[in-house]
Prior knowledge:
The protein is α+β, with helices and mostly antiparallel strands. The protein has two helices and six strands.
Amino acid sequence: KPLHFTARWKGLDVPLHLRMECQETKTVAVHVLDQPDHHPDQYKRKLEIAQRIARFFNGLEIDLQGVQLDFQRFSISGAPSKTGAQEGQDLATKANNVPSSSLPVLELELGVAVRALPPLNVQF
């Protein structure tokens, strides 16, 4: 199930409406839901931001001194029944007024590889 959300990005004067989904190939695709309209430069910037978010998830790897976690896929639980950019706008509006237990949860599935046993005094 795709995740629709609205975000503010530093250096961008307008909200960013995105759809993020995990494809069968375990890659994340992020799409801009806004139309280019009258501001092609802003739209180009939004596309660049979407690509950066996708690269973040697709390259996500955590090394815990020998134990490596890498991104496999994500899922959404508890999401409202609305779809599209409106869902993201509603969630952004409600985020400050709604208990966190009633907001959707983004769950990340991570793969684990033990390359070496970590030392007894693991440093974080």
